[in-house]
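Box 3.1 A note on notation
Throughout this textbook, protein chains are presented in two layers. The first layer is the amino acid sequence; the second is a token string describing backbone geometry. Keep the layers aligned when reading.
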Amino acid sequence: MINRPFRLPHRLLTAVALTVAIAIGGCQKTPDANEAQTDTDIQASSQNNTQNSNQPSDTQLPQTTSTTNPAEQQAPLTILALGDSLTEGLGVDNNANYPAQLQTRLQELGYKDIKVINSGLSGETSTGLVNRLDWVLQTKPDVTILTIGANDAIRGIDVKTVEANIRTAVKRLQDNDSVVILGGMQIYDNLGSDYVKSFAAIYPRVAKDMNVTLIPFFLDGVGGDSKLNQADAIHPTKEGYTLIVNNNILPILQPELKKINPSNVTNTPTETAQ
């Protein structure tokens, strides 16, 4: 007996094929609508970011601009007013002496973080000043306005001694990194013309030799004017000190402050207080 191969009916084969096709199709994952949207959003966001990176941002920080007001970017400064009764302000209120008026004027000009120390001592001689340098240098002054010698002249102290003391003071100050401004002094001729001339010559000579800035005559425009001096005809009034600050000190001091810290540039006084 010959065995014949078993054959499925044609209709049954067709039905089986359709069933397999449907089963295979059902196993494939249909793309989720949310995932498709997410992919689209990512692509759009990437494109936007690329475009934005090539365009200026509206939220960029504004560029800082330098102002001419030194109070905004300056380092603290200490000015030492060193001298005798002309510095101390003998006979005037504490807010009327030249160190106090100088600090007020500098603050008006924009130097907010600045301190002027009054280290004037009535009756001080150049020798006495040298002897107290160790103490005053503890203030660590950036600038020192040195005015000394008047009391030496009143006592008739030898000019060479006065000059030697002033040179010692200047060197000590410079060695401690203080910029020195030397206030020149002149005296009455009651001690003889030779002494007067020799005394006046001390200050420009020291200034030249030691490379310090000189105020040619500290009392210029004030000394000898009865309206600007007290009854002793030696010590200035409040108004006299105002002229000294505005006319004699500030024009010399401000360029030195600019050298110390260029960012501390401020306006030069355009009007002198009377």
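The CA atoms of residues 246 and 272 lie 6 Å apart. DSSP finds ten helices and five strands in the chain.
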